[in-house]
Design a protein that fits this description.
It is a single chain. Helices cover 35% and strands 15% of the residues. With 142 residues, the chain is of the alpha+beta class. The protein has one domain (10-126). The chain starts with 9 loop residues before the first helix and ends in a 25-residue tail after the last strand.
Length: 142
């Protein structure tokens, strides 16, 4: 008997990581602002940078893995990118390594008091998706 365990939808990954963060008591800050756990693993917030770091870490350690994700430019995102899983190649092994790698990277980020700092994630994508970031208009003081 074979059981097909495929968490192919991005929301599955997001749900698993959010529940893991809650279970582990992870609390997050970015630029000195407390970020709710529910916002961390969203496909257009911190996840693109986090998964990019995971991929880079595995490459640095010469661990040959295909994490089966793509980054797309997205103007309605935190760092200009949105992560998508490649449904045709979304192997169980990739699903497992994304969860394990993301957990490893989160736990390796600097901690200040009870908070894990997400500040290093802003550098993970470099300028690759900078053109997708829309500036928030500022109002001139009269």
């Amino acid at each position: 008997m074979s059981i097909d365990i495929k968490l192919t939808d991005y929301k599955d990954f997001e749900g698993v990581m959010t529940q893991l963060a809650i279970d582990r008591g992870w609390e997050f800050k970015f630029a000195d602002e407390i970020i709710p756990v529910e916002n961390i693993f969203n496909e257009a917030t911190y996840a693109p940078a986090l998964l990019t770091l995971v991929k880079s870490e595995f490459e640095f350690r010469q661990i040959n893995l295909n994490l089966d994700f793509l980054l797309r430019g997205e103007s309605n995102s935190l760092f200009g990118a949105k992560v998508q899983f490649t449904e045709t190649d979304n192997a169980f092994q990739a699903q497992l390594w994304r969860i394990l790698g993301s957990t490893m990277m989160i736990e390796a980020l600097p901690k200040f008091g009870p908070y894990i700092s997400l500040d290093p994630l802003q550098y993970a994508l470099g300028d690759t998706f900078a053109s997708y970031i829309t500036e928030i208009p500022t109002q001139e003081a009269n």
